[in-house]
Amino acid sequence: MLPNRSRTSVLVFLLPPLLLYCAAVLFPILQSLFLSFFSWNGISDMEFVGLANYVRMLTADDIFWRAFFNALIYLAICLVLQLGGALVVASLLTSLRRGRELIKTLYLLPAVISTVAIAFLFVRIYSIDPVGLLNQLLHWVGLGSFERAWLSDVNTVLAAVSAPEGWRFTGLYMLIIYAALIAVPKELEEAAVLDGASKWTLFTKIRFPYIRPVWITTTIMATTYGLRGFDIPYLMTNGGPGQSSELLTTYMYKTAFTSTDFGYASTIAVFIVIECLVAVGLILFMLKRKADS
Amino acid sequence: MKKLFRAAAVAAVTALALTACGGGGAATNPANVSPTGEIKPREISWLLSRPADGAVINIMKKLADDYAKDHPGFALNLITTPDRPSYIQKLETLAAANKLPELFDTDATPFAQQLAKQGKMVDADKLLKSLEIYDDYRPGALDYQRFDDGSLYMIPFQFELEFIWYNKALLEKAGVAVPKSLDDIPAMCTALRNAGITPIAIDGQDQWPLERYVAYQPFRAAGPDFVQKLKKGEASFTDAAGQKTVTWMAELGKAKCFQDGFSAQGYSDAQNQFTSGQAAMYNIGTWELPSLATDKLNPEVRDDIDFFTLPTTEGSVTSANEFVSPSGIGMAVNSKTYDPLVSDFLKFALDKYPAEYAATGALSPTTNVQTAIPANATPLYKKALETANTLGDKQAMPWDTQLDPTTNGRLQQELVLLVQGNITPEQFTKTMDDAIKQNAPKFFK
Predict the structure, then answer these.
(1) What is the value of pTM for the model shown?
(2) Which residues of B touch A70 (CB under 8 A)?
């Protein structure tokens, strides 16, 4: 404890983390911005190309747009599974009397398993030859006609690589939302019940408004994580077949490290940064407007 | 805040300028293969992409230890990344930072050729000649490492032959014979499928195995030059040889030649399908002899396994004894750190390496040693090794080492779609020709 907490001493202590933040976050972003105006393969001389990379990205690159829309679908699936799933499970959990801890732990378990293990696990689950868990289940319940190679079918692969990412963090968000839900004052709920409020009214009028701040935070977290999603699709399908499960992140990574087109990859990276900022801005805007109305 | 931002921007620009300056310089003359001066032992590093417990690494470790006995202070630090895509990323990043170690692995890719052009690699042709071991090497093993202009900058440590392994019992069950021509394979697949057998097991996840197939028809129809022209945009997929391979790949897909869902299956999945007797054919090289031609192979299929080499076609310009015979990823010598010590160690190690390597049962890239057949080998082992003695002069180059990396990535993706029937041969042809047109000029100017 400092004897006299002066302004200077606070600044002195704040400076190292600030510098670290600048070095680790701001500097790479600025560097990407700088690189995005160049054509550079790592060993050649850097050639200034102005906005050519941006023009190519926005007008002439079919894979970029495919990857962008894939990333949006990926995000939507992740959000539904993570936030929707988390809210449902957390609400059910509050009405449970026994075994809460056990269920919480079970749901949280996937969040602590390594990504590589999850990717391999799901490759097995989706497999058709040898028959994996999912196809086996479909067969048992009589839906044999739905059996397919989920990761090789261009129509199912995107959903198939999104689901593990969604499934993985449902437990984590469930825990956060659950903590917010049990903090809702019991008096409020009891008063509402006495006034004849139904379960649904109770949820929409009392509980949800009460957890809104937490909900905003989790939505922002889940969205930014979703937009940056990379590892599971990359490990499971490497963006394939074709570009069916290519996300902006995997495409950027390949452009940088397989095609060694660091300038163009930086352009995509800048786009991802802007996309994340826009997404967060939109969420804040929408939720604020809702709260105001 | 404004100030801070400005400072950061300046820092970013300065750092970039510094790396850009660093990228240009190559200290020594790549043609000077016999540096003079005193040998000062130190630790040197080899960045490589080979199995961690494989023969190459074990032997080089042992040779380095032997060398260190006479040269106290010497050590060889082996940094291996067996997963090839990860390795290539590591190599390219280090090359961009101008931080390549004394020795590093690379294929004869367009990227490596740029490094060579910048004088960053020692001329291996001159190096091997100055060590008086050039003539010991199999010409094919050296050719595999050469760039298109015939220059040689990588030293091979292996020599492999790629065969199509097959299960005699399964072929018999389906009533089909070993294909005489590449064009027989689609019909053969249909017959095998009708008998409930998976025709070909393939590792789709790693993508290079499927890319091998696209190289076969053009190699037969137009010889090894086709891909060299194709990658520069001087030939195209609309040419006769190009169209032949595109339609053939589509036919393979239509005949369901590869196992269902192959694109998500890995190396060991494919091998297991073949060795467990579920798949009839499997295209792989002699590096798998220890698992396919010894008593490690599943006894149930052991007597049924055989192999054939790449079939020819009608009007083929290459002969039956010419197919894919790679000498593996090669080792390049960094010209910047090349000094009397590196030179002396290479002389010591390259001289002793072939005998040690042949003793492990593998094919040496040189012809001055006899490969020892392991005690647990099946007769196929000997047959496979003997095939190396009757090789022709031409060899089919894997396309992934030839095309520029962006076109290569696109080809790997589009091939899966073509074989799965998601795109038509026309769409494939157009996409790939456009990709080459767009990307090749940057790499082959």
Answers:
(1) 0.87
(2) none
